[in-house]
Automatic annotation (TrEMBL):
CDD domains: CMP-NeuAc_Synthase. GO terms for molecular function: N-acylneuraminate cytidylyltransferase activity. PANTHER family: HAD SUPERFAMILY MEMBERS CMAS AND KDSC, N-ACYLNEURAMINATE CYTIDYLYLTRANSFERASE. This is Acylneuraminate cytidylyltransferase family protein. It comes from Denitromonas iodatirespirans. It holds the Pfam family CTP_transf_3. The lineage of its organism: Bacteria, Pseudomonadati, Pseudomonadota, Betaproteobacteria, Rhodocyclales. InterPro entries: CMP-NeuNAc_synthase, Cytidylyl_trans, Nucleotide-diphossugar_trans.
Amino acid sequence: MKTICIIPARGGSKGLPRKNIKHLAGRPLIDWPIKAALASGVVDRVFVSTDDAQIAECARAAGADVPFLRPAELAQDLTTTEATLQQALMAYEAHVGNTFELCVFLTATDVFRTPDWITQAVQALIDDPALDSAFAVHQTTKNYWHKTAAGDWARVLPWMRDYSSRQIREKLYREDTGLACASRARLWREGRRIGDRVHLMPNNLPETSIDIHTDFDLFLAEKAIEYLAEHHPERVPLFTDDRS
């Protein structure tokens, strides 16, 4: 199955200006998903969707294809990821004169992934034609609350009223599609990121909660990498050719 990886990276980020080319552990953030996709062994093309010439240049240097820039109207603060992925896929297919069957979504702000997660997501769709999407999730036992239409606070699920040890408590799973997500291309053409029949890839690694949108997030990511390098080198999100 022909598979494309699309990485959105606009130039107008507000919380951390120019975040997609900020350096983490000595290389631009945009490098991280590109290198992971290339190392996964399951992606035919890596395309970075950006409206910014400098980001495009960095992405090309890392091994991605950026034959054109994203339209400015799809690089606004309120532009949805779904709209970005839909336009990027269809414009790139028109550019190369070919269509793709599977799509991988990664972000430059989520870096604590391994290439194997991408491989697993794509392989899940190949192995089971009934699946729409496969993606990374973070496992948690925390309670969640929401405000009802009446303005009251309520637990998201009734069973959350029953407290117990986290070791035996029912688990919840937070979507982390920016870490690794594979979907059928038809969903993206419809403007959907993920479908209804899904395969989840759970983890409970604390570092996967770091999504870099502020200076503090970038600081945490740097410190996490330093800690992992000393205590859990197998979890450092660097690739074989980068490790000394």
